[in-house]
From TrEMBL:
Keyword Magnesium in annotation: no
Chain ranges passing through the membrane: none
Cell compartments where the protein resides: Cell membrane; Cytoplasm
UniProt family annotation: Belongs to the bacterial gasdermin family.
Record flagged with keyword Cell inner membrane: no
Keyword list, A-Z: Antiviral defense, Cell membrane, Cytoplasm, Membrane, Transmembrane, Transmembrane beta strand
Protein name (Swiss-Prot/TrEMBL): Gasdermin bGSDM
Membrane disposition: Multi-pass membrane protein
Organism: Aquimarina mytili
């Protein structure tokens, strides 16, 4: 079910052809590998461990700020769906979502925005040049790669670009037009009693910004990589931009279970999915 269309997710897709993550995390970085089956990804590890005899050539990781996405709010969404998404963001910073849930009682709708958004990316032509000019081969005997090579429905993908953020903001509403106040002192009291580097900033009565010290990846771009099973020679396939979320029957938190959150994503269009699980 395609629940709503959002400026921020459209920007992520249209500007960067990126696949947004359901749970932001730091391990998703350029030059890392994914195994993709039925459009569903599994994290494998770093590209250098895929190369026979090791990969000792430095590939520059470029960075740039992303003004088009920074601080752009999503549209207002239903609280039950929004809390499911919020819970994953909070968990990514190592915080119990229940503590935040208690501070937003009376909320029926919410919206989000990412701040301090940075794009990290490699020059794929540089990587291709390094591989060809140095006659670098993949390791087809790696037990993980060997299985992928034997299954046509399984793809090997290289992450080339990511979008990261160190903070996000939450805005709450009683309805489409009326703001709902956030009990910010309650969140501050919780943070004061746990071991965390997460801080919060009051933006208004109904908006709070969560700020961490570790950039978390919330969207990525990847390209299919092939390894000849005999020679180990690398070749490239298609850019993969239709990866979808792995769904399960579990809920995000105890609070989520109490309010019976449906397992629906903000945007569940399989052609252009919003949130991806690893």
């Amino acid at each position: 079910m395609r629940i709503c269309k959002n400026d921020i997710t459209d920007q992520i897709r249209d500007l960067f052809d990126a696949n947004p993550l359901r749970i932001p995390e730091a391990r998703i970085q350029p030059m890392c590998m994914l195994e993709i089956q039925n459009h569903k990804p599994k994290y494998l590890g770093e590209f250098r461990f895929l190369v026979k005899d090791g990969f000792n050539h430095p590939i520059e990781i470029n960075t740039s700020t992303v003004a088009q996405v920074s601080n752009v709010k999503t549209k207002k969404i239903d609280f039950k769906i929004g809390f499911d998404i919020l819970g994953n963001f909070i968990k990514a910073f190592g915080i119990d979502p229940a503590a935040v849930g208690a501070s937003i009682k009376g909320t029926s709708k919410m919206s989000f925005s990412f701040g301090n958004v940075v794009r990290k990316y490699i020059d794929t032509l540089e990587l291709g040049h390094v591989l060809v000019s140095n006659d670098i081969k993949g390791d087809p005997d790696n037990m993980f790669i060997q299985e992928i090579s034997e299954k046509k429905e399984v793809k090997l993908a290289l992450i080339t670009d990511i979008l990261t953020s160190t903070d996000f903001s939450l805005s709450t509403y009683k309805d489409n037009t009326t703001e709902a106040e956030i009990n910010i002192p309650l969140i501050q009291e919780y943070l004061a009693n746990v071991d965390t580097n997460l801080t919060i900033e009051k933006m208004s009565e109904n908006e709070v910004k969560f700020k961490g010290d570790t950039p978390l990846t919330y969207a990525f771009t990847c390209v299919e990589i092939n390894i000849d099973p005999v020679t180990g020679k690398f070749s490239r396939g298609q850019w993969l931009d239709n990866i979808r979320s792995v769904k399960d029957s579990s809920t995000t938190t105890a609070v989520a279970e109490q309010i019976e959150i449906p397992k629906l994503l903000l945007d569940d269009n399989q052609a252009n999915p919003l949130l991806i699980d690893f």
